[in-house]
Specification:
This protein is of the alpha+beta class. It has 16 helices and 17 strands. The longest helix has 22 residues.
């Protein structure tokens, strides 16, 4: 092995040696793909939700380790900030009454976690960005005291060689600098997983990319950061800028950011892993002892640890995942687009829309990505992040004449995509009552033009108009949001905020 440097409990290998190992992993992955040695999917879906801890006034509480000790469940884990937690739901088969089952499990688990958190003077809040966060909250001393977070912070800041610059121009303008990646902790998301075969992977990833803008338009829930009203889904530019390892000169040269929508439709899962290797330097150059080609020669399945680690430091909104379970490799698409919240019902409505649309689009004989230029999909994503439920999106024109039309997201969803999502869920084997219950939530959001972000923004302006200053208005909005979220009723049915 080459020279190593020990940092916070991790052995950092020589970067040249790491690149060699990463290249070997890529070659081994190609062999596995060519030999079709992957597990056949069992229609399994996975779900993770990142959470905030806040007190009765809606202010963040830096106490995730204390709360986790009280919860005492491996389903709940740390996240980057001391005011963050993550809950992982065991994989479920996409069939039957899967969404009702998930709803019951989530309400039970989150209810228990909330009761334990209240013993420490905190509560669980599902929201994309907590509106009451301030500059003083998002500092390196409030990162979770876990080695991997500290090491990630050190490596990103060393790669930049300068402070993180946050510059987001939305309804208002935000300009801040940070000496750490702590602002990233403001972003709390829902992550959806779908296991697929290598042959099916490209279709599912392309479909996921195509619908990402629709997901954001319907589910945006992050309009505020550091007291400023920015984009309807401000998580997206915040995460991009907080994880950006490029100094100014590399940005000027067109080097790609580590948080990335992508730049083309793909033909194979290998395309994404190879792009990650080609475009992005190592952040955590940690080498394992495994020789992947030796493992293959002996008939085994390599863990490809370097590939998995490197892949985890490239923050695609739809990320490829390689893993080994029970000695068998499998591939997943990890959809990382959605913000958390506002309620379990809203989260599962967003979940149903994603899995239904991806199934329908991936099954199409003339798929949407053959008719929608990738640049248009990227423009859609940007428009949805900026404008949320009021966004207008490019979409292929129906019928033989082809071409693109620009259409309000709510009309596109109501008239074309909700029926497609219903058909996709039916193809998965989801029962009619289950799929209708959650897709009706999306239809109502479109009808009333209300999602989490639009409700927060309207409530904030109502509070300001009543005479509250900015800080008190945001605190009042957060308190009312928490009260209504705890009722479990979907956000489109909430009464106006303060």
């Amino acid at each position: 092995m080459g020279e190593k440097v020990v940092s916070d409990g991790f052995d950092l290998s020589d970067r040249h040696q790491y690149r060699r190992k990463l290249r070997e992993c890529l070659d081994a992955l190609r062999v596995l793909l060519d030999e079709k040695r992957f597990e056949r999917p069992r229609n399994l879906m996975g779900l993770e939700i990142e959470l905030n801890l806040a007190d009765g006034d809606g202010l963040p509480r830096m106490m995730n380790l204390e709360v986790l000790r009280r919860i005492g469940s491996e389903d709940f884990q740390t996240e980057l900030g001391q005011f963050n937690l993550e809950v992982n739901i065991v994989p479920h088969r996409l069939s039957g009454r899967v969404f009702d089952q998930l709803a019951e499990e989530l309400r039970t688990g989150l209810g228990y976690a909330d009761r334990q958190a209240r013993q420490e003077g905190a509560g669980i809040v599902m929201i994309g960005i907590l509106p009451t966060l301030t500059d003083e909250d998002l500092v390196s001393s409030n990162l979770t005291e876990v080695d991997r977070y500290m090491l990630l912070n050190d490596q990103i800041m060393a790669s930049r060689g300068e402070e993180v610059v946050l510059d987001i121009d939305g309804v208002e303008r935000l300009n801040r600098t940070s000496s750490s990646i702590a602002p990233e902790a403001a972003c709390t998301s829902v992550q959806l997983h779908l296991q697929v075969t290598p042959e099916r992977f490209a279709d599912v990833w392309n479909a996921s990319q195509a619908v990402s803008a629709v997901q954001i338009a319907m589910g945006a829930n992050s309009p505020f950061l550091f007291g400023r009203e920015l984009w309807r889904e401000s998580r997206i530019p915040l995460f991009l800028q907080a994880t950006d390892t490029r100094p100014d000169e590399l940005r000027a040269q067109g080097v790609r950011p580590r948080t990335w929508f992508g730049e083309r439709w793909i033909e194979s899962a290998y395309d994404l892993f190879e792009e990650n290797f080609r475009y992005f330097p190592a952040l955590l150059p940690i080498c394992a002892e495994e020789d992947p080609h030796q493992v293959l020669r002996e008939g085994g399945v390599p863990a490809l640890s370097e590939l998995v680690l490197h892949n985890g430091t490239v923050y695609r909104w739809n990320r490829p995942v390689y893993a080994v379970a029970g000695g068998v490799p499998h591939l997943r698409v990890e959809n990382r687009v959605l913000p958390a919240g506002p309620t379990v019902t809203d989260v599962l409505a967003n979940t149903a829309l994603y899995y239904g649309l991806v199934r329908s689009l991936a099954d199409e004989q003339r798929p949407v990505w053959r008719r929608l230029p990738f640049e248009a999909a990227a423009e859609n994503f940007d428009a949805a992040c900026r404008h949320g439920i009021d966004a207008e999106l490019h979409w292929p024109r129906s019928g033989r004449q082809g071409g693109l039309v620009k259409v309000p997201a709510v009309r596109l969803v109501q008239e074309e995509l909700l029926p497609m999502a219903a058909a996709g869920l039916e193809a998965w084997g989801v029962e009619r009552a289950d799929r209708e219950r959650y897709l009706e939530v999306l239809e109502a959001r479109c009808r009333y033009r209300v999602n989490g972000a639009s409700w927060q923004a309207a409530a904030y302006h109502r509070a300001v108009d009543s005479g509250l200053d900015r800080e008190k208005a945001l605190a009042a909005v957060t308190r009312r949001y928490c009260e209504l979220s705890n009722t479990g009723e979907p956000v489109h049915s909430w009464p106006p905020g303060p």
